[in-house]
Design goal:
Number of helices: 3
Helix content: 25-40%
Mean pLDDT: 89
Radius of gyration: 21 Å
Strand order of the largest sheet: 1-2
Structural class: alpha+beta
Number of domains: 2
Shape: elongated
Strand content: 15-25%
Order of helices and strands: EEHHH
Low-confidence stretches: none
Distance between the termini: 71 Å
Length: about 90
């Protein structure tokens, strides 16, 4: 019987065969999903796949890329957005 803290669906159940031949269940935390681009929904590179409590312990530069829209948009979408903003600025002048 698992402990009361492990009776939740937030834990992943891994079936492990012991050297004696018995099958035991090991409980482990689920890994969060991969961070995705807000525009094209592609996975973001440079963003770690960790729980919020683990992310809190990291430095700011380890949590996301150090560029505009880092951690929210992928680099091609960032480039396109910067180009469109630059064109808007030229049209307004």
């Amino acid at each position: 019987m698992p402990t009361p803290a492990q009776r939740t669906r937030s834990f992943r159940k891994d079936r492990v065969t012991t050297p004696g031949g018995k099958v035991k269940i090991h409980y482990s935390k689920k890994q969060p999903g991969i961070a995705k681009c807000g525009n094209c929904k592609k996975p973001l590179s440079g963003v770690p796949r960790k729980l919020p409590t683990e992310l809190k312990k990291l430095k700011k530069t380890q949590k996301r890329p150090d560029r505009p829209y880092g951690g929210t948009l992928c680099s091609p979408c960032t480039k396109a957005k910067m180009k469109s903003k630059n064109m808007e600025r030229w049209e307004n002048d």
